[in-house]
Amino acid sequence: MNKIMKKDIVAGLGEIGLPILKLISKKENAIGYDLDKKLMNEKKFNKFQNIQTRFLHISIPVKKNFISNVLTLYKKI
Ligand SMILES: NC(=O)c1ccc[n+]([C@@H]2O[C@H](COP(=O)([O-])OP(=O)(O)OC[C@H]3O[C@@H](n4cnc5c(N)ncnc54)[C@H](O)[C@@H]3O)[C@@H](O)[C@H]2O)c1
Fold it and tell me: Does any ligand 1 atom lie closer than 6 A to the CB of residue 40?
């Protein structure tokens, strides 16, 4: 499949996730996702929703519900 037909998602656009998103965006089709909608480009996220995800990069805080949060992100994305 053509590289352009896949996307990387960076979940959690904080101190770590935002620079990772910027770096990956230089070479790949990459989109950010965050619970805080002000931090993400929802229009772009929705536009690329039907494109297959190549990688899901997790950069959310590791708290006691981390595993279930990651599973929720996996199912959503
Ligand atoms: N900042 C550091 O120096 C550092 C160093 C080593 C490891 N880490 C690890 O990197 C990860 C990210 O750290 P950070 O400093 O960027 O955190 P941060 O608090 O700056 O950003 C976290 C972001 O994740 C979002 N978020 C939280 N739960 C979410 C969910 N379920 N779905 C989507 N978005 C969610 C928050 O809204 C926030 O914008 C953590 O696991 C942390 O332990 C951070």
Answer: no
Q: What is the pTM of this model?
A: 0.94
Residue 7 contacts residue 30 (beta carbons within 8 Å): yes
CA of residue 37 to ligand 1 center, whole Å:
15
Distance 75 CA to ligand 1 centre (A): 19
CATH value at residue 21: 3.40.50
pLDDT digits (tens, 9 = 90+) for 3-47: 558 999 999 999 999 999 999 999 999 999 999 999 999 999 999
Q: What is the dihedral of CA 45, 36, 32, 52, to 10 degrees?
A: -50
Range of the domain at 72: 3-76
